[in-house]
Structures are given as C-alpha cells and as structure tokens.
Amino acid sequence: MYSIPSAAVKYGGLNLFEDEIKYSKSRFSGSTNLSYIMCINAGCMPGQVNIFTPNPRIPIPLGSPINENLSINAFKRESYLKCHLPIGPQPNCCSASDAFTFDKNPPYDDTSYVLAVKASYRQIYGNFQIMDSERSIDLERRLRNGDITIQEFIRGLAKSPFYRSNYFEVVSQQRFIELSFKHILGRPPENQEEIISKIESLKENGFESHIDTLVDSTEYQEAFGSDTVPFPRCWNSPCGLTTSSFIKQAVLTKGFATSDNAIHKRPTLADAQGGSSQLIRGILPGQAPTIKRSEKM
User: What are the domain boundaries of the chain?
Assistant: First the structure.
C-alpha cells in the first residue's frame, strides 16, 4: 500500500505553488514614445503598457457606468499606488502603520512567464482544464511582450467567452458571484449583503462591469498588486477577513482535484439543471456553513 506524499497533501490543502507567482515585463521592456500598435500575430514588439493598460487618460467607453468605469477605476488605482502602501498578506502581529514592503522587482524570464500563465488559467478557470484552442493566445502574447500586466491578463481571462459560458451563463447569479469572488479576489463572499449588492450591480451594469469592479478594487490591489497571480487567501486566517471565511473557502473548494465547473450541486439525474449556490444557507443570518466529510475510507 502506497502512502500519500506530503507534497500532495500540501497541494490539496494550501495551493498548487509554495510561493506567490509573480511576473512583470512592462518595467523592463519597451518605450512609451512609440506610436504603433502591436499586431495580433506579432512575435516580438516593445512593451507599451500605457496603451494596453487602462489609465485615467483613456476615453470612457460609450454606455459605461457612471460610478464604476475603466477611467475612474484606473484613477483610483493610481491614487492608491501613490500612497506606497504594503501589498500582499499582512502580518497579524502589527498594525497597518507598522507594516512595510520591500521594493522588489518581479521576475521576467521565460520560466516565470510560463508558470504565471499556468497559474492564472488554473485560478481563474477554477482548475478546469482547457484545450489549446480555448486558450487566450492574444492575451498571452501581450503579456509576454510586456504590453499588459498580470492584473490585465486576469481581467482578460475573466471576460473571455470561455469563462462567461462556463461560469456565468449556465449558473445562478449567486453562484456566479461566489465563483468570481473566489477566482479573482481569492476569497468567498463575506455575507448576504455583499452578494445582494453585487447582484444589483450585475443587473444594472452587466457582466463585464462586474469583472472590472473586482479587478480594479482596492482589495485586489492590496492583496495582489499588478504583478501577482491571485491565489486562495483564506487557508491561514489573513488580516481583514473573518474566521468563517476558512469554512466558506473549504465549501467552495471541495477537493483539489475537482474543477469549479463540476461543482454545481447537481441532483441525481445527470441531465438535471445545475448551477446552484454552495453558500446559500451558510451566509444567512444566524447560520454557519458546514464542511461535509465523506464517511468512505
């Protein structure tokens, strides 16, 4: 009888990777003085982060929400970056005023690029294995050339037709909110009020605006910045999150070998309607989610 390797246990309990996955090429490549736009079939061109990354100078697209659009969100993000606040998991032993972060340059080599792309697909697509024809090749090229950051790569994957068809159109609204929080922010929704507010925003502004709201949020910037691939944050009781977030994260994750596309709480019949919420009872006032343990050994 073979024993389970300790690496497999850690893989299922924490994360696929031991450390945070980072990649950034925009600060090392390219010139902002060039005027041409990268072709979709380009093999190598200098990075133009100010063209391909939303900034406060871009025109507001027609039909964009008044309060939450790319230009306003980019202005908020730049204003936050000017404060030079620490980015990443905060220690429990000190306050925010005592915390600090060293100025580190993320890697930009080919190995880090491949690892970051794999980690991004795994995180945003919920461990759902895709075929080569379903990959976002254009986004991968732009990331490799340094024209977009990891943050913009995550935005593109979350807005892709693959994500929309598997995690938005075939599930309930509450299930979509749960999955988008898990995939983009690395945590489950805190309470029923947070889900209700996001459902109202989704109804008023649409799918893409909801994705922009999460990617451009201050929480995303504090946790991941622009160069870190999102990861599950609730396995070790981080600052700013409740203790129940661990249980909710376990309810949403189920098992490390299961994709989020398969966890739809389906009835016995295989062709029955699925896509129901996993936290619909656990977030109600006075109730707590429970982790179901299998009795089979």
Answer: 6-253
Q: Predicted confidence band at 2 (pLDDT cuts at 50, 70, 90)?
A: very low
pTM of the model: 0.76
Q: CA-CA distances (angstroms) from residue 225 to 21, 48, 216? A: 12, 19, 10
Q: How many residues does the chain have?
A: 297
What phi and psi values does residue 162 have, to the nearest 5 degrees?
-65, -45
Burial class (CB in 10 A: 0-12, 13-18, 19+), 150: buried
- What's the helix, strand, coil split of the chain in %, to 5? 40, 0, 60
Concatenating the DSSP letter of every residue in 180-198 gives: HIIIIISS---SHHHHHHH
Q: Which CATH superfamily is domain 6-253 in?
A: Phycobilisome linker domain (1.10.3130.20)
184-238 pLDDT, tens per residue? Answer: 999 988 888 888 889 898 888 889 989 999 998 888 988 888 889 999 888 876 7
